[in-house]
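My current task is to audit a protein record that another person submitted. Alongside the sequence sits a line of tokens, each denoting a local backbone shape. Please read both lines and tell me whether the tokens look consistent with the sequence. Do not assume that whoever made the record got everything right. Thanks in advance; the entry in question is below.
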Amino acid sequence: MTTRIQQLSDRLQKTFGSTLQSNIVEFKEVTVEVAAMDLLSVCKTLRDDKQFAFEQLIDVCGVDYSEYGSCEWATKESSSTGFSRGVDSAVNARLRFGEAPAQVCTDRPRFAAVYHFLSITNNQRMRVRVYCEDEFAPMVPSVVDLWPVANWFEREAFDLFGIMFEGHPDLRRILTDYGFVGHPFRKDFPLIGHVEMRYDEEQKRVIYQPVTIEPRVLVPKVIREDDRFETETPVASEENSDA
């Protein structure tokens, strides 16, 4: 941990105090959490206060914390249950069509928006995370008035995660089709989607219909600790071979 990073964390804590729900230094960056109601005031200070001067908003990312921390694929050993994991019904982070995700991590709301900031003046970066209080209608304030570049970032988070940004001037899909159903980066969204499209000869146009692909989950490669990946033994020299 460098001194400058810790100093930034300390300045944030001194400036915002109890407004920060969390202030963590990890991976050589500072990440703070604030409530949705405090987002705009905190962001304005981060932009305008010279000790922070975060002039640039690099990205706004949506996050789905459903089943956060649950992973059944992290293994370095083969298992007799390996095949069944790929064909049985949903377990942990794997979901089948129509199945709702289990809330494994219960100490935080399901959805969050994460803001990545850059200060060119101070040559520093940081993150701000805001959780959406309502899982069924996730919403946080829009920061478009502070950083106009947030326009497309927030539209992307809305399109892929269904997070709504209150006050956004034109909140609509940006990556999926106009008639797309659902939000494809949510963990309960099937990998094969809900609908498929094809060209209909009779109607002479592209039509949408329920997806016809059989839902399936592939079994990942298992990393085994044995000699199959070791380098070959160097070829003996000519002198030794003649002997």
